[in-house]
Amino acid sequence: MYIYYRWHFANGHAERRLHDWSIEYFVDMFCGGEINFGPYWDHVLGFWKESLERPEKVLFLKYEDLKKDSVGQLKKIAKFVGLPFSQEEENYGVVEQILEMCSLSKLKNLDVNKYGEVRPNVHNKIFFRKGQVGDWINHLTPSMVERVNMIIKQKFSGSGLSFSTLN
């Protein structure tokens, strides 16, 4: 869930750790639409609507779908950028090789991502966590989950957009 990722990311910035922002604080900010750059749902719905109106220009992917069907989603991305895999490439395992090269474990363990910085005091390693769908459930209370689910369901209502993490 975006809120947990955002909280983790914000607390990973060395200059922000002094504030010790709690997950409760972030849930309040999220539900109030006060996250950086405006309400989360406005951005998601904007991209969602554009992907429906201009599918040749905007590809909308969900992390849960990438995890569930990595091969299918990578083929979708390749086709979208105009470089679909040939049957020969598929037969030789090119899709699987790309998935391995781009895997979280591979990227997370590159020296540049373990020790590098985007800018001073912002370490690349804050961009890499577990990569598990649903891990947020271990960090948010049931009342937080209910509150976030309620506002997202309300904001996405009638759009045709849904997330498997919402009950």
Characterize the structure shown.
The protein is 53% helix and 3% strand. It is mainly alpha-helical. It has a two-stranded antiparallel ribbon.
User: In what range is the share of β-strand residues?
Assistant: under 5%
Largest sheet: number of strands, sense, barrel closure: 2 strands, antiparallel
Structural class: mainly alpha
Rg, alpha carbons: 18 Å
Task: Give a topology summary.
Layout: H1 2-12, H2 23-31, H3 40-53, H4 63-68, H5 70-80, H6 87-91, H7 94-101, H8 104-108, H9 111-115, E1 117-119, E2 122-123, H10 142-156
Antiparallel strand pairs: 1-2
Helix pairs in contact: 1-2, 2-10
How would you sum up this structure in a few lines?
With 167 residues, this protein is an all-alpha fold. Helices cover 53% and strands 3% of the residues.
Please describe the structure with a list of short key phrases separated by commas or semicolons.
single chain; about 170 residues; mainly alpha; two-stranded antiparallel ribbon; about 5% strand
